């Protein structure tokens, strides 16, 4: 691949930059404490909803909510590389942009759903009218997702769903659940699962908040008691949901806020250049310079995997292994950056944003807590290594 942007891509990058600077509140990037890769610090989007909604409306007007989708489904018909550029720039400014609906649900529907289902859902997602949460994990089914027990039984034109989901990020502010359920209890684990869309307003759904380690309400546990779901909301074929789920997980692993890593790194570097200890600027210390150089190298490596995945999609190559590689290196980078940030800032790194002595809005403190979620969501690091070993190297699964 050519690592240089084309003239069109450079022009698009500038257009996105200019748009964000104009439309995003001037203090947004500094106030937003989302840690790159983390799931637990996403809750602040709800608290800043008026600004979020206004910005998202402008993104919808630009046609960028579904940038690389075909125009017949409400997309802008841009290349995957242009979508990656948009994703990188948005995440650099910590701007509200891609979500479950646009980054996971929509692309999976385009591959697995009927034309009728595509026509019903894709334009709504492209217009920003349908917000989804991922109803995958259960109290006893996380990494071993195929062991999920939430059941759906046929009853005429409906499925009747009973069970519980947990760690439902943003379930309390979403319209629909993108849900994996067991529809054939007699089949082998991977062959009795279906993927369905469930309206959050359906009778029998109870959403209970889970306050995360950062002190924010981002996660939820959700209970389903005789919830009726129209059969037309089944994605693809019944009992083949596991294969669609694997596809959806691949899209989730590509949805990396890569620009957030570079932005946070720049803020840590600036802190070392402006902060003195015993009369010496921190950035002059060899150990500090070594740690920051290590981060800079890892960020550039992650960017290489990110752009390569976009290039592969534009060339009709499915980045199956590369999605796991990208997810693995960036989420482990999330943890490494938090650890180095804490070493750089010392005791000040342990201060929350509300402390008058904190720096970077307390981002390192919240990031140190939140980075653990990055290593778990969309499949743990161990699972990613197994996928890389099995699919990429042909080794037996452990």
Q: How does this model look, in words?
A:
Strand 8 and strand 9 (280-281) form a beta hairpin. The chain has a four-stranded antiparallel beta sheet, with no helix packed on it. Helix 10 runs antiparallel to helix 11 and helix 11 (320-345) runs antiparallel to helix 12 (363-374). The mean pLDDT is 93. The protein folds into three domains: 7-126, Butyryl-Coa Dehydrogenase, subunit A, domain 1 (Orthogonal Bundle); 132-241, Butyryl-CoA Dehydrogenase, subunit A, domain 2; 248-393, Butyryl-CoA Dehydrogenase, subunit A, domain 3 (Up-down Bundle). The longest helix has 29 residues, at 286-314. It has helices at residues 7-23, 28-31, 44-47, 49-62, 80-92, 100-112, 115-126, 241-254, 258-274, 286-314, 320-345, 363-374, 381-393; strands spanning 132-135, 151-155, 158-166, 176-182, 193-199, 205-211, 217-230, 276-277, 280-281. The protein is globular. It has 13 helices and nine strands. By secondary structure, the chain is an alpha+beta fold.
Number of extended strands:
9
**Helical percentage:** 40-55%
Overall shape: globular
SS summary, helix count: 13
> How widely separated are the two ends?
33 Å
Using the coordinates shown, work out and report the CATH topology of the largest domain. Answer: Butyryl-CoA Dehydrogenase, subunit A, domain 3
Q: Mean of residue pLDDT?
A: 93
Query: SSE order in H/E notation?
Result: HHHHHHHEEEEEEEHHEEHHHH
Largest β-sheet summary: 4 strands, antiparallel
- Based on CA atoms alone, the radius of gyration comes out at 21 Å
> How are the strands of the biggest sheet laid out side by side?
2-3-7-6
